[in-house]
Design goal:
single chain; alpha/beta; eight-stranded mixed beta sheet; Rossmann fold; transcription regulation; Arc Repressor Mutant, subunit A; about 250 residues
């Protein structure tokens, strides 16, 4: 494997899963730990990551949508299938930005629904489905992450109501706080929470604790968490105390 390709894969792994050990990266890429260490030195010299004891981490920030969309697809599809089954025909659905919301949109074809979104990939997925009333929120385009943000998006949301909000996240803290890596998205997410009757958080196992420096909301703002793996005891306890229903891979933990 060429060094440039290894570097791309290393950065993708760190961005999607958080800090990683040299041994883990070595197994994932099928090369020696010594090779990984040399790669990490080069990437750190280029300012693309920070080496830590035993591994490396990348600074939090924007990730291109196309890059994030390629990771953990089966897990996201499992979550999306559970989420889609919660929706009844005739209801209104608010879909957040992010790749899991996009996977959910793919599950909604052929349904009689109203879908409201600031996610341009969701819009593109559903635009030709005549059974779905599609509402695209206005705003400023974040091209790399295919989303709409800003005061126009927030103003639009204040005029709307949805039966369901399906919310994405970059991380869930042990106290149940929902986090995001991108500050500009947080006001839009908060406006979505106010516009949704039922708030469902979609979070695969990598989101516990995941990443994120900006708090979107606390567990008291959630009604349901849909994930693909058992939630760690501390986070589960915080969610339960707030009355959140936790749906895990076909079963319910309450």
């Amino acid at each position: 494997m060429l060094a440039e390709r290894r570097h791309q894969l290393i950065l993708r792994a760190l961005r999607s899963g958080g800090p990683a050990a040299v041994t883990d990266l070595s197994e994932q890429l099928g090369v020696s730990p010594a090779t990984i260490r040399r790669d990490l030195v080069k990437l750190e010299e280029d300012g693309l990551l920070t080496r830590v004891h035993g591994g490396a981490v990348v600074e939090e920030g924007d990730q291109p949508f196309a890059e994030v969309a390629e990771v953990r697809v089966p897990e996201k599809d499992a979550i999306a299938a559970h989420a889609a089954a919660m929706i009844e025909d005739g209801q209104s659905v608010l879909l957040d930005i992010g790749t899991t919301a996009f996977r959910l949109a793919r599950q909604l074809h052929g349904r009689r629904l109203t879908v409201i979104t600031s996610n341009l990939v969701v819009y593109e997925e559903l635009a030709d489905d005549e059974g779905i009333e599609l509402v695209l929120l206005g705003g400023m385009v974040r091209r790399e992450y295919r989303s709409l943000v800003g005061f126009l998006t927030e103003d639009n949301l204040r005029q709307l109501h949805a039966d369901w909000l399906f919310l994405g996240t970059s991380g869930v803290r042990p106290g149940g706080q929902v986090m995001d890596t991108t500050v500009v998205e947080v006001p839009v997410k908060r406006a979505m929470i106010k516009a949704g009757d039922k708030v469902v958080l979609l979070a695969d196992a990598a989101k516990f604790p995941g990443t994120g420096m900006a708090k979107v909301c606390g567990p008291e703002d959630l009604d349901v968490l849909v994930t693909n793996a058992p939630v760690d005891p501390a986070t589960r306890s915080s969610l339960e105390e707030a009355g959140v229903e936790v749906v895990v891979a076909g079963k319910v933990q309450t």
